[in-house]
Amino acid sequence: MNIGRKTELFENSVFTKDDKISIGDHSRVDAFVKIEGGNGVRIGDYVHIASFCHLNIGGGELVMEDGTACGSGTRIISGGNQPQALSCSRSAPEEQQIVGAGKVIMRKNSCCYAGVTICGHADQVIEIGEGARIAAGAVLTKSVGAGELWKGVPARCVGVYIDGKFYAEGTGEFINRQYYVGPGARR
Fold it and tell me: Using 50, 70 and 90 to split pLDDT, how confident is the model at 162?
């Protein structure tokens, strides 16, 4: 594993295929995080991965550019056993499995708040645009544009950030950014 300068890796984190993982400078991986190397994980500078995240599930590829963040309990799925296989168990003999891999890219300064699930699958690329936000508890299955805010199950775009202000999707109405932080936010 390639680890940058002044990067903190807290105890009880797990890294599989760590030869496929690189973490930039000044980043932080909290305790009880699992990162699967799969086809490659590239984590940039000034990235924070909070406790209980499980990243690159299924063995695809994950790119987290500079300044990105994953809140506690975030899960990023980049591939896995395909449903048409005889067995979907990773412990089954290889000839009974069909494993597919995709790619998830978190662009600069994007953020997944607590409990987000990104459901990528074989041959799919999910890109979270620069500065985009995924609200707590959302389940994301597709790409997100720069500055957009997505929430819900399944996640949908509810607005966009422009010059630090949040505008609601469809109406263009300016809304206090705290309004859409996640479940339980003041209304």
Answer: confident
Domain boundaries, the chain: 2-83+99-158
Peptide bond just before 154 cis, omega within 30 deg: yes
- Beta-bridge partner residues of 3: 23
Which superfamily does 2-83+99-158 belong to?
Answer: Hexapeptide repeat proteins (2.160.10.10)
Residue in 1, 16, 3, 24 with CA at minimum distance from that of residue 54: 16
34 vs 162: CA distance, rounded Å = 34
Q: What are phi and psi of 69, to 5 degrees?
A: -150, 145
Summarised one tens digit per residue, pLDDT across range 21-65 is: 999 999 999 999 999 999 999 999 999 999 999 999 998 999 999
Question: pTM above the 0.85 mark?
Answer: yes
Name the burial class of residue 52, with classes exposed (0-12), middle (13-18) and buried (19+) by CB atoms within 10 angstroms of its CB.
middle
For residue 122, what are its two tokens?
């074989």
